[in-house]
Queue: 2 jobs
Job 1
Amino acid sequence: MIDAGISFHVSEKGYYGDFGGAFIPEMLYPNVEELRLHYLEYMMEPSFQKEFHFLLKDFVGRPTPLFKAERLSAKYNTQIYLKREDLCHTGAHKVNNTIGQILMAKRLGKNKIVAETGAGQHGVATATVCALMGMECIIYMGAIDIERQAPNVARMKMLGATVVAAQSGSKTLKDATNEAMRHWINHPVDTHYIIGSVVGPHPYPDMVAKFQSVISEEIKWQLQEKEGRDYPDYILACVGGGSNAAGAFYHYLDEPRTALIAAEAAGQGVSSGHSAATTFLGKPGVLHGSKSLLMQTEDGQVIEPYSISAGLDYPGIGPLHAHLATSGRAKFFDITDDEALKAALECSMLEGIIPALETAHALAVFGKLGAKPNEISVVNLSGRGDKDLATYQEKLKLNP
Amino acid sequence: MNRISTLFNSTQEPILNVYATAGYPNFGDTMLVLNALQEGGVDIIEIGMPYSDPVADGETIQQSNQVSLDQGMTVTHLFDQLKNMRQSISVPVLLMGYINPVLQFGVERFCQKCQEVGVDGLILPDLPLAEYQQSYQTIFEQYGLLNIFLITPQTSDERIKQIDSVSEGFIYMVSSASTTGAKTGISSDQEAYFKRIDGMKLKNPRLVGFGISDRESFLKASNGASGAIIGSAFVKLLGNAKNLREEIVGFVKSIKGLK
């Protein structure tokens, strides 16, 4: 399954195989270069590690449980564990990264934070750590997303963040990311950009993956306790940009006994013209500072993706995942809106856990995976579904 | 010698480089705009290749990119429009854009087309120095294309020297930490920055870009450099013009101080 000689870790030049790099305007070079030169050193400092782990424990509530989903296991006649990232403070795995990056920003001497957000989860996680550390926070969010994610906008404002509507392009996550990068270009000296996924110029994909790797670090010892072995046969996660998947896969990248399973949002179907399944529809290209797979026209213009889930509604994918997909190390499944909705309902009814729509894409893979009765799967339950209630109400006809 | 270096070697007057988005305001206006710019007395023309996600550009240029794309502009169409450019245009011509459309067109094929139609150089803000040297420089040079690099007030002296050693033609000196069109006018701090760079005795001349919109800011910028670049202010004019040719000629003359 794993070819000897293929590395799944970032190279010195910032590449995963053919993907990655730092395709940034010169205006961002000093900031990105400063980060590149120092991120490993700062992260490894004992004082950084101490503060990071203290906050993950007492503020975020880690370790998150690894829960045996008995009724789901029975339904699919296999062994299913849920890694409960939905129980993180703010309701999703996103906060693991924002805690790490706010500590990084402090060490870089920055006192202002800018970030992009799609569904608002990363925006809330960023606004939360800014409130905690007393830093000024500006969040760019697509004008259309602001309308459809009103509760998260209110949360960000209550946490003291300024939410700015991205009015350019399609007014969703891609454009919010463009605007956040433009803001950083205009404020290079005092501002740190907290990217919310394993995307962006090197070293962001590696840095975010390392902060999220706490997920698989915990799975290893939790599985050892429960099953007497520290690796599952399958580890499943949804992929938009891919931060929760990167965290869940991280300590298993070189473990040949664990199959890595990624669920992408097929929207209305891969061939429908309304999809966000980048590894199925994308070609190599450059967006937001790195070379990766990208949904684009023949002329190299970025195509606007579609998914019912705002968190997976992104035309690219992190360079690590592009490498995992093209090298065959990870297997990618395309999950439609309807399949995700069905899986969300099933998890709610069978396990008493309402998952985020993003997470529901990973759960939907069980219908297609063919895992054997004695095989062990771990699904990264990346977020809780409260933010998606309006969609669930409408699509699952839950209104009174 | 290439057209750009010839220009810098032969003129003592401040050099004016004007940026125009291709296929804007209307799909078929590209050559009309180029001819009018030259008629007005422009020294260098920079043609913007529209892109869906131009992160280094402010609102004005973004919006013109989107209009042009909506009207059907592509790299292929642009080369088609520029096919006979050198029958009328004698000033140096640069293409400015983002790396992704170039990658999709094919880097070598793109460079070959540039050479065919008579393009002198490229400005690709999201193609950084290290990537250029590793994967692009050989191909660009093979087709006689100069790659124009940017420096900003935050660029270290060491990196400026590195960029200077790789550059040919000129260096694009961004006047302030910003996207295009975000600020107007030139402050005394900026003039000090231009002078500081001037004092570094680089082998390449510099043109100042970002924040230049009229004769006053053009002259101020040219005081510490060989000239300046106007983008957003000109794209605004294109978007509002009633009589395109006449207004372009008048604009260039007013900046150059010509009657």
Job 2
Amino acid sequence: MSAAASTVARPAGRNRYSTGSLPRRINLYTLPGSFILAAAVMGLLGFNWFGLAAFTALIYLAAISGLSLVVENRRRAMDRFIRGLVTSAFLLALLPLVSTLWTVVSKGIGVLSWEFIGTSGGGTTINPDTLELVTSSGALQAIVGTLEITGLATLFSVPIGLLTAIYLVEYAAPTHWLRRTVNFLVDVMTGIPSIVAGLFAFSLFTLILGPKAFSGLSAAVALSVLMIPTVVRSCEEMLRLVPADLREAAYALGVTKFVTIVKVVIPTAIAGIATGITLAIARVIGETAPIFMAASFTDAFNGNPLAGPMQTLPVMAYTGYKFPGQDIALSNSQAWGAALLLVLLVVVLNLVARIIAAIFAPKTSR
Amino acid sequence: MKVLSFGRAAAVLTVGMLALTGCGGNASSSSTSTAAGSSPAGSTAAAATDYSSLSGTITAGGSSAQANAQAAWAAGFKAQASKVTINYDKSQGSGGGVTNFTAGSYDFAGSDAYLTADQAAKAQELCGPGGAINLPVYLDGVAVIFNLPGVDKLQLSAETIAKIFSQQIKTWDDAAIKADNPGVTLPSTAITTVTRSDGSGTTQNFTNYLHQVAPAVWTDPVSNKWPVAGSSAQQGGSGVVNTVKAGEGTIGYADHSAIGDLKAAAIKAGDAYVSFSADAVTKAVEAAVTPAANAKEGDLAQDIDYTKLTSANAYPIPLISYDILCTTFKDPAQAKLTAAYIGYIASEQGQKIAAKNAGSAPLPAELAAKIQESLKKVS
Amino acid sequence: MSAFPATAHRSSAAVRARPADRIFRLLSTAAAVSIMVILAGVALFLILRAVPAIAANWTSEADLKSGVTGGFPSFWSYVAPLAFGTVWASLIALILATPVAIGIALFISHYSPRRLATFLGYIIDLLAAVPSVVFGLWGILVMRPFLLPMQEWLNTYLGWIPMFSGSVTSTGSSILTGAVVLAVMVLPIITSISREVFLQTPKLHEEAALALGATRWEMVRLTVFPYARSGVVSAVLLGLGRALGETMAVAMIISPAIITSFRVLTEGENSQTIASNIALNFPIATGLQRDALIGTGLVLFVISLAVNMVARLVISRKPRQRRRPTGDDGGKATAAPDPADVLAASDARVSPVSVLHPESVSK
């Protein structure tokens, strides 16, 4: 409406390229307008936040492209429509993110305390007079389990992953059959479904140790299968970013290849490698199905990854929901507490990765 | 592989290590156990038995129905035998429990069904000629839970339940439900049946009940996996309970001890409608069980004949969960320890603890006495 | 990129090999070989466990006749509906996620304020950081009730479409709910790869289009899309690979039955997925039943392998020759986005490149 007015009032002297354009601040009018209209629609249909957002977006899209079609031209209208559309797509993706984080935080924050982090579950005792159980509730066993299992998985995956990357980048001739095969197999490995990795570890350990083969080690093996390809790819990429000049300069000085790699190539790429590894850890730390298959779960504390079921945070979140104790509400709230701890851990790992990247960012960029 | 053989050695070492750090719960080799005291599994007055001299680790697992009771029993037993550690792994389910037991890695298995002939044969390879014995230690009932706004009390006959769960009745104001509930106004809300999506002993018991009592309506198989399409299948007893609670016009089945504050239907037995009570379950078990056909000496596997449950004081869908153990252990000390623990479970105090903390029904006195008899032969 | 390892290789011959050198070379080669061993191990163990169940007679074997695997005459009749359900649920998730993901990628790469681009990318990557079990809990608590009215609406007004027919869910445990949650989970994968690919469009092409008077959308349509097509296709396929293997969220949300059904709004007629079926039934399964479940895992492995291979194939394919600048097959203008970069973006989810070189994102 105001747009039409502005086009009528356009100064005569402007050149033809800016003719028939909507004012720059058109969104200041269309957005609130759409919002009010959407609110009115909601008033008719019954209120709901998602509906409000959806109708605002729809009305805005219709309004902006309609206005543009009238005032400007079809091409501009299309452009404005698409701009609105991709922006809505982005905002739409924020909804589940905000909703998930909000749900986890609001449900989990009540449980979270130093006591929850610092004590172990499963230490149930009984009051001999009333015969009532006193359940100790805490997540220490799950935190320890998560750290040990992902720690072991990292211990297995990083040497294999890094050395494979070094082989691929530094040693193998591009056409060598082993390089091509390994390249292909790393791709294949990326596609292994997590539950299949769990089944693999379970089958492997039952074959060796008999049917009760649950252990943290077994879960770590399962996670390694998922982690290795990620580590190989990110290390490979980082090693490739190291300029060939550096290597050749080292060779020219008569430095051996081994020393060149260890003293020149890896230090140059170390930030990227560390970032890639941290992100790989963040990826596997939240895996549930493979750990549940391989390490089972327990409410009791088990700090020994070599024998017996181990509790982890994702499995604790899952089992708190699926196998609640007598006090169902308590079990469910503990599940949320574990979920919140897990999300915090993953977010922290992601931040750490970025901090590593920021601090050690290489002077040379590509 | 080097890591693994190291692991075995380390497992033994860590028993000590863990003791030092004050952390229990290591499910490692149980052969390190020693039973210093004499076997207490003699009398039914188990509260008088002194367990304090026992020590060692019991490794077990299986039925998740028993899980809460096992947690209570472990705590109760530990209060009297402080040197004993009990690990009951509830993630395994009955199937996993039996599998691990027959492979020799459990001291006993918790299972919602007694061993099949095949499994018993496998157990015999492990336990020697005496084989394994099934001891019914945990009683509960399958509750038919519902959420129908405006309706607090619901009465259902087996035929009606069978019709509902086989998707033959679609709305709450169906004539069959009305006939069971004279004087109650039932809405025309659609019925949503909620069942288990995972294999479960509860499903096994429930389908067995429908199969026996309403064979004309229930033509689907008896199975631990829900056999009829068209229901809302949810994961775990908690999934069923949560979904029934969240929905409207929902009906489902779950172990009574796990239903929380949900309403359960009274089930028709004979001419009366019987609500769940612990006492009614005990009565039902007294009335309806007969020793299983191929039971060995000392084996207390029971077949439930649901059709016998026609009296007004017996709950029509009882659920029995067993602890299964060898008659002959490789290690006599371990045998004493395990027998003492299961003796405690079947004792008056054990049953009281489970009733209080897990909502189970107490064992009939006769059955409890038989369990203690059977345990005497475990060596 | 491939030129320089070759140089390195040649120069290694020039440098005299010392023991440490030889050992290190041996070690890194051994690591590469170990990848082959691990993968062979995964396949071998699954096959070893699966073969007895596949070979068994499902109508006479006591273990298989009842319970978890009861009612199926053979392994293949058991796994077929599961395989269908796996693909079906993932496809719906992809149909929901792909347009949104491409929109987001485009927003971040070509529409958002430049200074914000890296940050916005990080926000979307945060979605990838949420563990699947958390999505499962969230799906049960939030998404099930939230999507219920929409599903009733679809069933009432669009029930004549077979997909939306049947008796509508009353608790929300339908395939559609599961697929929406799956869509949220694959969104960051498709987005991050598409974003990387969009950003690699040669700057010159874009500027040329703009200089000719194209609007931003026309520039995107004429320069970015033709260039990025294969990259986006493979991004979608990699997203599919992720959706296929998703376990916990699906197991917690969808009410399954082992049947072949296209319906997405019902409660009792949802096709089951392989991964969820394993997670739900593995604990109670005994003997051969476990082997049968491992067998279905093997089938899942093969399916996701196939999807991943196709994805890689699409990525590494040379871009088609283009004849007309405006047409679908235009002039020989563009080089393919480097496969290695695209793959790295997909594997690390959050590409270390974009972390280290924010300028490459916020160009």
